[in-house]
């Protein structure tokens, strides 16, 4: 047991690339630490993208099945993170196709907003440390409105926003994951943010 | 430029590009205004910053699925399933004898794969399991020591061994010396808590050796008394106020009286040493052996409101009253110097 523990502690210090290289060389026990290392991050990504717990769980599992089966295609030293995201994204797109498109979220949900018509006015409602139940409810509502507006974006823009904003990837990494030029990533993100602003404005104006 | 500003705000740029943007921002008021506007326009995204939480068994389920897939692949590759589409769902009972053997082999493959892949998947769980095993091993060790203590007490008017008031035997760890001299100690290893995984057992001297060292070489004596009690702490007795005599614990007292426990932190082990749990079990608590023979793992130094490692004057010395129980590490004298 202590031998296992020491070994697992030493694996914790390995980079992702070292883990995959070892796995490719036949060291099976590095696979568990790799899955655990990406558990939160990759599940979080898939859950945001797919909008469904069960589907996200299924795709997460299939992603690592694919890693296992396609380990021969991994080139030693190549950054693992974008490679994993590429597999996960492809799996997620396939899953969406199989399940039929997600039910679109209506922008009508934004009509409950109490903002004053300007995008920047939302800033004044940034979450505070208040624990007042009413305030908490308001924060939850704002979160839902933002999520709905991101969900409403076209697929390719939504993916870009999630990877850039929520997953914290560099332009270069996003380009690698989506298989598009960096310039396209930049313009997609720019367009996505413009659309989000429009949506937030429209939602606020609907109240007036 | 706006796209680079977005990248700068969200940390999407490589270092070179980020430096270019910084230079532009220093030189251009227009760029700074744009940045402020973009920052404000993106701010609402922060409302949804809480990351989704994965189900607790996600890693296990994933590894299981991978293992099953690997086994299926192996089965079809080696022809174990006789060219049939293999799958673990085929009932054992429907297979002929040879088929049963094959499926058992597949089961073994699956189990092996899960073991290989999943064994190391949750170090925190392994750590907890290991700690739990050490607590149990430590408790068993204390119970074995109890056997020796009770035998010693039977020959000494039902009194437990303990330190003398003064002289070479005036240290808490003398309990081990008494057990050792009485051949009541299975092995010196028993002075070590299994959680500490100390490879070498301490040298437990005879009382005569201690007396000799005390006279001839005080430095060696001090080193020895610190080690002889190993990883545990021992009852220091109490001072009877009326007579000012040092009294030892009797086997006839309250059965819940603590007599031996994992040792407390020492002063050199950092701030808060006199308030923390024993270091033996990662600071989570300590095993305490009681007069009745039971061992309890307690997560606090306090038993019934009494700090088992300090007396009422907050000193690691003998108690101030019969119910002021103090357990000190090996080198502790019962009375103040």
Characteristic key phrases:
heterodimer; A: 208 residues; mainly alpha; Rna Polymerase Sigma Factor, Chain: A; Arc Repressor Mutant, subunit A; globular; B: 337 residues; two-stranded antiparallel sheet; 41% helix; elongated
Brief sketch in words of this structure:
By secondary structure, chain A is mainly alpha-helical. Chain A is built from nine helices and no strands. With 337 residues, chain B is an alpha+beta fold.
Computed Rg of chain A: 20 Å
Strand content of chain B: 5-15%
* Class from secondary-structure proportions of chain A: mainly alpha
Total beta strand runs of chain A: 0
What order do the strands of the largest sheet of chain B run in, or round the barrel if closed? Answer: 6-5-4-1-9
For the record, give the distance between the C-alpha atoms at the N and C termini of chain B, rounded to a whole number: 77 Å
Which fold name fills CATH's third level, the topology of the largest domain in chain A?
Arc Repressor Mutant, subunit A
CATH class of the largest domain in chain A: Mainly Alpha
Number of individual domains of chain B: 3
The rough form of chain B would be described as: elongated
Q: Which overall shape of chain A is indicated by the principal axes computed on the Cα atoms? A: globular
How many helices of chain B does DSSP assign?
9
Provide the gyration radius of chain B in Å: 32 Å
Q: How many helix segments of chain A?
A: 9
Written as H for each helix and E for each strand, in order along the chain, the element string of chain B is HHHHHHHHHEEEEEEEEE
Order of helices and strands of chain A: HHHHHHHHH
């Amino acid at each position: 047991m202590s031998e296992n523990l020491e070994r697992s502690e030493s694996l914790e210090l390995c980079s992702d690339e070292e883990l995959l290289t070892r796995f490719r060389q036949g060291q099976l026990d590095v696979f568990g630490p790799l899955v655990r290392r990406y558990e939160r991050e990759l599940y979080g990504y898939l859950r945001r993208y797919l909008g469904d717990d069960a589907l996200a769980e299924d795709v997460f599992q299939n992603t690592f099945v694919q890693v296992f089966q396609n380990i021969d295609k991994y080139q030693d030293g190549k950054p693992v993170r974008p490679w994993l995201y590429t597999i996960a994204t492809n799996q997620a797109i396939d899953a969406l196709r199989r399940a039929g498109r997600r039910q679109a979220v209506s922008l009508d949900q934004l009509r409950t907003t109490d903002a004053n018509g300007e995008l920047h006015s939302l800033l004044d409602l940034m979450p505070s440390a208040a624990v007042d139940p009413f305030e908490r409810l308001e924060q939850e509502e704002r979160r839902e409105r933002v999520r709905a507006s991101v969900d409403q974006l076209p697929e390719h823009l939504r993916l870009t926003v999630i990877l850039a904003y929520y997953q914290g990837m560099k332009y270069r990494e996003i380009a690698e994951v989506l298989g598009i030029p960096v310039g396209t990533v930049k313009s997609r993100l720019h367009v996505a943010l413009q659309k989000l602003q429009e949506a937030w404005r429209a939602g606020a104006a609907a109240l007036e | 430029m706006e796209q680079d500003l977005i990248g700068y705000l969200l940390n999407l740029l490589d270092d070179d590009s980020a430096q270019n943007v910084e230079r532009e921002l220093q030189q251009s008021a227009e760029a700074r205004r744009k940045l402020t506007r973009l920052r404000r326009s993106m701010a609402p995204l922060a409302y949804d910053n809480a990351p989704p939480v994965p189900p607790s068994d996600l890693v296990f389920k994933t590894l299981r699925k991978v293992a099953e897939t690997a086994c299926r692949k192996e089965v079809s590759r080696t022809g174990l399933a006789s060219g049939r589409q293999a799958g673990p769902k085929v009932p054992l009972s429907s297979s002929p004898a040879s088929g049963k053997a094959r499926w058992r082999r597949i089961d073994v493959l699956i189990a092996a794969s899960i073991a290989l892949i999943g064994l190391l998947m949750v170090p925190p769980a392994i750590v907890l399991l290991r700690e739990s095993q050490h607590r149990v091993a430590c408790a068993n060790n204390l119970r074995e020591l109890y056997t020796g203590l009770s035998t010693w007490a039977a020959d000494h008017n039902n009194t437990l061994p303990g330190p003398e008031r003064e002289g070479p035997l005036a240290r808490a760890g003398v309990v081990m010396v008494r057990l050792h001299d009485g051949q009541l100690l299975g092995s010196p290893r028993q002075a070590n808590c299994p959680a500490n995984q100390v490879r070498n057992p301490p040298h437990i001297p005879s009382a005569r050796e201690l007396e000799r060292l005390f006279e001839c070489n005080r430095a060696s004596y001090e080193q020895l008394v610190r080690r002889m009690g190993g990883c545990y702490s021992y009852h220091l007795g109490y001072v009877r106020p009326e007579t000012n005599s040092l009294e030892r614990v009797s086997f006839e007292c309250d059965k819940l009286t603590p007599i031996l426990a994992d040792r407390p932190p020492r002063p050199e082990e950092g701030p808060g040493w006199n308030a923390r749990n024993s270091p033996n079990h990662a600071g989570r608590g300590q095993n305490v052996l009681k007069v009745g023979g039971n061992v309890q793992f307690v997560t606090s130094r306090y038993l019934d409101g009494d700090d088992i490692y300090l007396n009422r004057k907050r000193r690691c010395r003998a108690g101030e009253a019969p119910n002021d129980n103090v357990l000190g590490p090996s080198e502790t004298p019962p009375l103040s110097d």
